Amino acid sequence: MPRTLTEAALSTENARKSLPEGTHWRGLNADVHLGYRKQKRGGKWLVRWYQGDQKYRQETFGTADDGKLLADGVNCFSYEQAKTEAARIVSLARADELASVDGPAPTVKVAVEEYASARDEREKAQQPGKRGRGDARQRLTKHVLSAPVAKIALHALAELDLVRWRAALPKGLAETTVRRVVNDFKAALNAAAVKYRSRLPAELAVIIKNGFAAKFAETPTARDKSALPDGDIRRMLIATATIDARDGWDGDLLRMVAVLAATGARFSQVSRMMVGDVQLAQSRLMVPTSRKGRGTKKASHIATRVGDDVLETLRPAVAGRRAKEPLLERWRHKQSKGTDSQGPQWIRDTRGPWLNATELTRPWLAITTAAGLPADVVPYALRHSSIVRQLRTGLPVRLVAALHDTSTTMIESHYSAAIIDALDALSAGAVVPLMPPAEDNVRQLRG
């Protein structure tokens, strides 16, 4: 039990002046006491709290606003400010003790590394041949683990820490990159909040939510401006065929770009297609749905109609192969040891499915250059182009969203210009003459 406390008057400067030198206490509750150490010149604030077994823990935290000193709530405290600071110190100390019960207190770094490892394991299970670090790990390592926020213990994390981290991100980062980093970071913290919930304060989930809130309330980017005209896409595919033949891709590069352009699907979907997903008789491809989202049930594939030209391009990848084999593959190379007359050479090693969108980076630059397109055109422009093409032909927004494995909200937010063009064309057909004809053209009919 805590010892009996003799309380002193500490609430005003005049009351503290009348105290003798030494330490005086006033209870904040049964286990926490605010202290004032009277000195020859002014005094110090301190706090102590009960640890059990007749033991207290004590900490000095600031100067009292005695004499000419003005309270600032940081180094110099009034009585009311001292009470607030004392409560904060005790709360944080108890959180430290709780978080360290079963070992070192988990930090932001621990949360991020555990999340990245879980993502890597999940991606390896989904794509057994995938090598290297996942995109999420690379983003988190670059933008979170290298930042001061990584060193903060989870139980001590505050909303301001997350706000400052977000503000310190490089100004040149694309909005989509920032969004991915923020979403990965938020997911890592939420996962840790669940895993270590017995050692963390209950309000951590609220801190995470508020710390990341209202950062993407700006006007959505108009993605229809990134769409390419059909003529540019045809030039791109011609350039792809040329580079495919020149660099010995054996049709692998052309098939990948052609399927991306024809379906508007994401690389992660197209790379998982199997030989059986090509339905030649129905002139369609069965595109696997994305693994994005949670808690919702959706079909495993999306039926997408494509032209005969695309199907002809895919025939060599289908002929004589089993339905469960990967549809789109590519050669991987290794460096030979070389000889006395010839140095090391890159030679074909193994053949397997495409694993990562970054594998398109180098050939894509060659494609856009050969097609005479701007260097800032990215493979995702093929998806934008497919969505805009279908909207402008008058397909319902809901159908376009379903065919591209996304939501109508996303379509309406980012492709509004294409929707307006399509609706304007449809509404023009409903226009009929309403004004009466001019009198000069009116003729009286005989009765």
Explained architecture:
With 447 residues, the chain is of the alpha+beta class. It has 3 domains: 13-99; 108-212; 223-332 and 349-428, hpI Integrase, Chain A, CATH 1.10.443. The protein is 42% helix and 14% strand. The protein has helices at residues 13-17, 79-99, 108-126, 135-145, 159-167, 175-195, 204-212, 230-246, 252-263, 267-270, 308-318, 361-370, 381-392, 397-403, 408-414, 416-428, and strands at residues 22-27, 32-38, 43-52, 55-64, 76-77, 278-279, 284-288, 301-305, 329-335, 346-353. The strands form 3 sheets. Strands 1-2-3-4-5 form a 5-stranded mixed beta sheet, with helices on one face. A 3-stranded antiparallel beta sheet has the order 6-7-8. A hairpin with a 4-residue loop joins strand 1 and strand 2 (32-38). Helix 3 packs antiparallel against helix 4, helix 5 (159-167) runs parallel beside helix 7 and helix 6 (175-195) packs antiparallel against helix 7 (204-212). The model has no long low-confidence stretch (mean pLDDT 85).
Mean pLDDT: 85
Number of strands: 10
**Which strand order do you get reading across the main beta sheet?**
1-2-3-4-5
CATH topology title of the largest domain? hpI Integrase, Chain A
Contiguous runs where pLDDT drops below 50 for at least 5 residues: none
Q: From the coordinates shown, what is the CATH architecture of the largest domain? A: Orthogonal Bundle
How many helix segments? 16
Q: Name the helix and strand elements from N-terminus to C-terminus, one letter apiece.
A: HEEEEEHHHHHHHHHEEEHEEHHHHH
The biggest beta sheet is recorded as:
5 strands, mixed
Please give the alpha-carbon distance between the first and last residues.
115 Å
How many domains, in number, for the residues? 3
Helix proportion range: 40-55%
Radius of gyration: 34 Å
CATH superfamily of the largest domain: Intergrase catalytic core
Structural class: alpha+beta
Could you name the CATH class of the largest domain?
Mainly Alpha
The proportion of residues in beta strands is 5-15%
